[in-house]
Write a structure and sequence with these properties.
2 copies of one chain form a homodimer. Helix content of chain A is 37%, strand content 26%. Chain A is an alpha+beta fold and 333 residues long.
Chain lengths: 333, 333
């Protein structure tokens, strides 16, 4: 049997029961954006890790080393955001092939620390080693969140409104352009590539949701709405209905869809790595959350609601309803 | 310029000043066994990370997957031990080549969690991804230590006694046998290979030193006495003198030295990965520490003392004195 036969989540389900050896104080070990560990009665330590390999997760030819460095950190900061936390410290480990220039590494580190500085996050010790083949980046990030504010995946309630803290789809379209159509230099193509290479972690949005008293659950859109919403649904024992007319479609996707022969909604629902947040909001508090977001110049999108489970459905603009299957990224599929 | 030109520590010195963005609460960021972060006034969180690559750090042919899994965790547990802490949670990330069997991974995870269970350490979330080439293991471990007990590298005092919590050298001899002489099946060779593949992290010894009130500084022997003592000396602004007659030489090394044409003291001083602790003890409290160790059936070895710096010297059995240079492992040398 090979990993591709059982998939990434199959493998995680396989190994996770073995790891929970001392359950006291572990609020979330595996199966959420961060591991959440009780340190004292009023605050949780958040820890999230990521392993990025050249040629699997990125190509050094795609972007400057500064951009690759910043992007490597973004996914973990986004995980902290999804738990409502403030990131605290980054632990960076690198496996470096002999052929790599130190100047490239300096620039990589410069990009990463520039992003870290924006969020007042340290980049602390880690491990540096040689690699016989490709460049490997391992990142662990810790964060803190007041215990009563932590945002998890399993706590959405039936009737809660599903919101996005920003539009999705552009990042994956940008990835498609980098893979297949680097010659494409339209404004839309450039915007999509930029969205893929320089996503912004929604730390401030996450903190706002965490302190709002209105948010019952959250996840970041790393694998795509369809996959990430499925996590919220499964973990909360609920289903969901999304309304097609309420889901934001970046205008660039309409243009790019014609060129790349793909339906924009496919990118919007199934494309990952936008790193916006997908959250559950108590209906009576929705208006307040949206207004509070506007004060910060953010646009939050109510795109659907949680219903009795387990189906995820899309209420289409033509009046028909279709089921949504998780179709985001699985590393081993 | 390539990394091999400046070495691992050259690279760390190059990048570490950039990372210390928010110094409040960071007791140790880079340059110790663990990053040490103040969480509350009376306890420190310890975080240590390690990145291990197939063919760089280990060969899957060398040992069972269970052994490889346990060994992967040992280095990090040893880092927690060197800070005097109790390990708490393990965050494991793996990059897995397509060819790898899930059964192999299950066994790897079984070995790792068996060791984790011995120390009541959880194995929590992490990241799992595919690899185009080799198997990559990334491990982050957190630990806790009462603030007043933490053992660091820069706090040794002139006149402090240098102790080892166990003998060194056997692990590196075992590594040499695995590389060059797998046909060698003498009792000594088997013991050396066992020492290399199944080192024991000195967690309990570290806790004992941390609570003794006698230990002023500590490090684990991961790169070899000569390199690791150099860290204690440089960070504490001291030199050291070691007495050859007091340094334990495992009897197996005498036999293996003849076969592999290497001086046993070379393995003892320069061989790494034994994962015993090298610590500084206040002279008036040495006897108490040694007796306390004996109660636990441990043998601690006073092998020298810290002197005004910066030289590290070996007082030889023939009465002569020679300088010791750090000669342990550097991944890029």
């Amino acid at each position: 049997m090979k990993l591709k036969d059982i998939g990434e989540f199959g493998f995680i389900n396989r190994i996770s029961p073995l790891g929970n050896i001392r359950p006291e104080g572990v609020i979330k070990g595996i199966g959420d954006d961060c591991a959440v560990i009780q340190i004292q009665t009023d605050e949780y330590l958040l820890v999230t890790t990521d392993l990025l390999l050249e040629k699997v997760h990125f190509l050094v030819e795609w972007a400057s080393p500064e951009t690759i460095g910043a992007r490597a950190l973004t996914a973990n900061l986004s995980d902290i955001a999804a738990c409502g936390g403030n990131p605290r410290d980054v632990f960076l480990s690198l496996a470096i092939p002999d052929k790599m220039e130190v100047e490239w590494l300096d620039a990589f580190y410069r990009g990463l620390t520039k992003l870290a500085r924006q969020y007042k996050v340290n980049v602390l010790g880690g491990d540096t080693t040689s690699s016989k083949t490709d460049f490997v980046i391992s990142i662990a990030v810790t964060g803190l969140v007041p215990a009563e504010q932590v945002l998890l995946r399993h706590t959405a309630k039936e009737g809660d409104i599903i919101i996005l803290t920003g539009p999705t789809g552009l990042s994956r379209a940008g990835c498609d352009i980098l893979i297949k159509r680097q010659d494409l230099k339209t404004e839309a193509a450039i915007a999509a590539v930029e969205a893929h290479l320089k996503p912004r972690p929604h730390i401030a949005e996450g903190r706002m949701l965490a302190t709002s008293g209105a948010c019952t659950a959250a996840i970041d859109v790393s694998d795509g709405i369809s996959s990430d919403l499925a996590h919220l649904c499964q973990d909360s024992g609920l289903g969901a209905i999304l309304y097609e007319t309420r889901i934001p479609i970046p205008p660039e996707l309409t243009q790019l869809g014609k060129i790349l022969k793909r339906h924009p909604m496919d990118w919007v629902l199934n494309g990952g790595e936008d790193y916006v947040l997908l959250a559950a909001i108590t209906p009576t508090k929705l208006q307040g959350v949206i207004e509070e977001a506007e004060k910060n110049n953010w646009k939050f999108y109510p795109i659907g609601e949680f219903v009795a489970g387990p189906k995820m459905q899309l209420s289409r603009s033509d009046g028909k309803t279709q089921e949504i299957a998780p179709a985001g990224w699985d590393h081993f599929a």
